Amino acid sequence: MKKNERLLKTQNIMFISPSYNVEVGRKALPVNSEVTESKIVYHDGDSIRVLRGRITDTDDFFITLTRKDGTYRINKKYIIKIEEDKKTNTFFEGEEG
């Protein structure tokens, strides 16, 4: 884990400080970049939580969501649903429209 990352209450989600730029391929996206907003619904222990923000990266295990208060990495196995802004029609791997 990098020095500016810390784990939240559960192991389902990881917080990265707001000053951190998320690496997407070879290009870093700053926190204030213009990307479509999404809503992610996920399990957090016995409860269900929702985060809204911009999906800035995805890999085999995590989805990275950027918000004003920082960047979150959510484990895909805990994600129930991803809703994207109705203006776009793009979906991530494994998601259907």
Task: Itemize the secondary structure elements and their pairings.
Layout: E1 5-7, E2 13-16, E3 22-24, E4 27-29, E5 37-44, E6 47-58, E7 62-67, E8 70-75, E9 79-84
Antiparallel strand pairs: 1-2, 2-8, 3-4, 5-6, 5-9, 6-7, 7-8
Can you describe what's shown?
There is one protein chain. Strands 1-2-8-7-6-5-9 form a seven-stranded antiparallel beta sheet, with no helix packed on it. A two-stranded antiparallel sheet has the order 3-4. It has one domain (5-84): SH3 type barrels, CATH 2.30.30. It has strands at residues 5-7, 13-16, 22-24, 27-29, 37-44, 47-58, 62-67, 70-75, 79-84. By secondary structure, the chain is mainly beta. The protein has no helices and nine strands.
Short recap of the structure:
With 97 residues, the chain is an all-beta fold. It has one domain (5-84): Roll (SH3 type barrels), CATH 2.30.30. It is built from no helices and nine strands.
Features:
disordered N terminus; two-stranded antiparallel sheet; SH3 type barrels; 0% helix; 97 residues
| Total domains | 1
CATH topology (level 3) name: SH3 type barrels
Tell me the Rg in angstroms. Answer: 13 Å
Task: Indicate the CATH architecture.
Answer: Roll
Number of strands: 9
The mean pLDDT is 67
The CA-CA distance between the termini, in Å, is 34 Å
